[in-house]
Amino acid sequence: MKTKTFLISLYLILGVTLTSAYGQGKDTKSVQYKAVLDYYTPVYCGDQMVDYITGQATFHIIDHYKDGVWQWEIAQVKGEVTGYYGEVFKMKEIDKYWIPEFGILTWHYNLIGNWGHHYIGFLTYSYITGEMTVGKTVCH
Predict the structure, then answer these.
(1) Residues 36 and 59: beta-carbon distance below 8 Å
(2) What are the start-end ranges of the E strands in the chain?
(3) What does the alpha-carbon distance between residue 86 and residue 88 come to, in Å, rounded to a whole number?
(4) Residue 24 DSSP one-character state
(5) How far is the C-alpha of 111 from the C-alpha of 92, rounded, in Å?
(6) Given this model, what pLDDT does residue 69 score?
(7) Where are the domains positioned within the chain?
(8) Which among 83, 73, 61, 81 has a CA at the least distance from the CA of 127?
(9) Which residue has the higher pLDDT, 66 or 86?
(10) What percent of the chain has pLDDT over 90?
């Protein structure tokens, strides 16, 4: 029984080691960090811009590299920011950057204001064309 347990453990360790060694390129890795950064976004209800949010927020960022070349980034953003008209919003956002391959930034925001406004939106920006596309929005 001890031999069987030892052999199963050995095979599991070898399997994990080989999968890790051959599953990714030599320089494929993800790096994460946190930073307080300036934040800004236009806010839309349908295709109508209704506010412009600015302030500082905490970004939790994950950058992914393949063969030493940056591939994409995901940022989770949280904080308290201010609208153009003075409303203070608690916000959460997820940003995804695919610049090297597609030249695209997408972001989903959820803003809850102290005056009762609640905005949820999905926007896309192309670094190639310079165009911003308003996706789905929910406004209360």
Answers:
(1) yes
(2) 29-45, 48-66, 69-82, 88-98, 104-113, 118-126, 132-139
(3) 6
(4) S
(5) 7
(6) 87
(7) 25-139
(8) 73
(9) 86
(10) 69
* pLDDT of 66 over the 70 cut: yes
Question: Of how many residues is the chain composed?
Answer: 140
Q: Which residues of 73-95 are buried (b: 16+ CB within 10 A; e: fewer)?
A: bebebebebbbeeebebebebeb
CA distances from 1 to 7, 8, 14, 48 (A): 10, 11, 20, 70
Q: What are phi and psi of 128, to 5 degrees?
A: -80, -50
**CA-CA distance, 121 to 95, in Å (whole number)?**
12
Q: Minimal CA–CA distance to 94: which of 105, 103, 104?
A: 105
Which residues have C-beta within 8 Å of that of residue 137, sequence separation ≥ 6? Answer: 44, 45, 46, 119, 120, 121, 122
Eight-state DSSP code of residue 62: E
Instruction: Give the per-residue pLDDT at 12.
Output: 35
The span from the CA of 17 to the CA of 20, in Å, is: 5
* pLDDT at residue 102 is higher than 50: yes
How do residues 11-28 score in pLDDT, each as one tens digit?
333 343 333 444 455 678
